[in-house]
Specification:
heterodimer; A: 331 residues; mainly alpha; Fumarate Reductase Cytochrome B subunit; two-stranded antiparallel ribbon; B: 125 residues; two-stranded antiparallel sheet; 5 helices; elongated; binds protoporphyrin IX containing FE
Chain lengths: 331, 125
């Protein structure tokens, strides 16, 4: 059912620009207004979500127990698993962000004869995720050429490496192939494994369908239907320079592509895709394991109203005296 | 807010990164530049309609290359005219001003065809 709903949603998203641009000719709406609105929503949404998270107190320092904490000098400690200071915490965080370290291990549970439950690394999931994310990054960097003034050395180097094999014209980008394969794998994984299918929601399928359709429309545009890149760049630089223009030479496929992209970035802050920002705010990743060295005070602790014995005695002195009870202070 | 300083710093860096093109264009002042490939006088039409050429000239070149290198057909008919299927001898004969024509667009769109590592560029005065 969730597969059906997300397929329905994506079909509607593709039909909107087909009707809006192909039928009604609202090019300015789809080329300028919607992208600006989506980008605005993206920025505001991200700031909102991050500030919301930042306001949540962290009551405990959560130690992860997969490594020896730093203690006595002769006990070997694991700096990356149980970082003793902020430098090693930053190292752990970067290994997470750059190499998806947690995803690499213990992500697959297997029942071995015995019966014994064994956790091993699900290498395929890690590989699919890392291929997808790095291809996405390279594609985004390459796309900057549509928005910045003539020639940037950095983008040239990136696209030069990406087109290393010089297959065909326009040259095949390796990342285009990789992102399509990786996304297909990530989707098939949810379709084919019964356990995964059981826990997958529409919110899991939809982003995958959306990304797949963005990549498909982009590659179709580049390798099959073709598009006037000069016109695209005029639009892009108009958007980036706040003097939007709509060149005549843009095809319907282009409008589908940027409408899907607009949908993606507008949806981003309100979806699971916010793990991009969330990873930096994960308490098990961003806190040093130094609770035996430094006291962590729960910022949540309410101001407790205490009534000390001295105050108690002050309050009931007369009554206690009359009843003949012993007192700490007579007066 | 907890750890506000670090979080806001991170947010600002993120926002600067995704709006990089805006600052880049302000810094270099190039946001209104538009390429103007110069057609040499005396030429009236390309091997294919200009609209097709503008979007798909690299595919045409790819087809020509395959025809010559793989099938040994050096001449081909397009729209009733016979052309020699050659980068240097056909395209660059009409568009002999490579710097003002091909490079004008390619520099703008940030593409670097590697063809000229082997194929001869027309001599320009
Ligand atoms: C989330 C953001 C985006 C993703 C994931 C994405 C993905 C892709 C992919 C995979 C391709 C295939 C060709 C290539 O890799 O260069 C492509 C092409 C293309 N995209 Fe995007 N895209 C995104 C945003 C945009 C935006 C905002 C624009 C608007 C200017 C755009 C315009 C284009 C154009 C014009 C092409 C054809 C490129 C060519 O022929 O060389 N894309 N896109």
């Amino acid at each position: 059912m969730s597969i059906f709903y997300s397929l329905l949603a994506i079909t509607v998203l593709i039909l909107i620009p087909i009707v809006g641009v192909g039928g009604l000719g609202w090019r300015y709406l789809f080329g300028v207004i919607i992208p600006y609105a989506a980008f605005g929503l993206f920025i505001i949404g991200i700031i909102y979500r991050i500030l919301l998270w930042a306001k949540v107190p962290v009551p405990f320092k959560i130690t992860t127990t997969c490594g020896q904490q730093k203690s006595l000098p002769w006990i070997k400690n694991s700096k990356l698993e149980a970082p003793p200071n902020s430098f090693w915490t930053a190292m752990r965080m970067s290994s997470e962000v750059l190499f998806f370290r947690s995803l690499f291990r213990n992500s697959k549970a297997q029942l071995k004869p015995g019966p014994k439950l064994v956790y091993g690394s699900g290498i395929l999931l890690w590989l699919g995720a890392i291929c997808f994310h790095y291809s996405f990054l390279v594609i985004l960097i390459r796309h900057f050429r549509f928005f910045i003034g003539p020639t940037s050395k950095f983008i040239e180097i990136v696209s030069g490496l990406d087109s290393f094999f010089q297959i065909g014209l326009p040259i095949l980008y390796i990342t285009d192939l990789v992102i399509l394969i990786a996304l297909t794998y990530l989707l098939l994984r949810r379709f084919l494994s019964p356990q995964l299918k059981y826990i997958s929601l529409a919110a899991d399928y939809f982003p995958l369908f959306l990304l797949l359709c963005i990549a498909l429309s982009g590659t179709t545009m580049r390798y099959f239907t073709r598009i006037d890149i000069v016109a695209v760049k005029e639009l892009g630089m108009g958007l980036a320079g706040f003097h939007p223009v709509i060149p005549d030479n843009l095809s319907l496929m282009f409008f589908i592509h940027i409408f899907l992209v607009s949908s993606l970035i507008a949806y981003f802050p309100f979806s699971k895709l916010m793990h991009m920002g969330g990873i930096f705010l994960s308490p098990t990743r961003n806190m040093a394991n130094d609770n035996r060295k430094r006291r962590h005070i729960n910022p949540w602790n309410p101001k407790v109203e205490v009534h000390t014995y001295e105050e108690y005695e002050d309050e009931f002195r007369e009554v206690m005296k009359n009843a003949g009870l012993p007192l700490e202070k007579e007066e | 807010m907890y750890n506000g300083g670090k979080i806001i710093l991170g947010l600002i860096i993120f926002l600067l990164l995704i709006t990089l093109p805006v600052w880049f264009n302000i810094a270099t002042g190039t946001s209104k530049y538009k390429p103007n490939p110069k057609i040499l006088p005396g030429q009236t039409e390309c091997v294919a309609p200009a609209n097709y050429m503008r979007t798909s000239h690299m595919r045409l070149l790819d087809e020509w290359r395959d025809e010559v290198v793989r099938h040994q057909r050096r001449y081909g008919e397009i729209n009733g005219k016979i052309y020699e299927l050659s980068l240097s001898n056909t395209c660059m004969k009409c568009h002999s001003n490579k710097k003002e024509f091909c490079d004008e667009c390619h520099n703008f769109a940030d593409v670097n065809p590697y063809c000229w590592e082997c194929h001869i560029e027309p001599k320009e005065k």
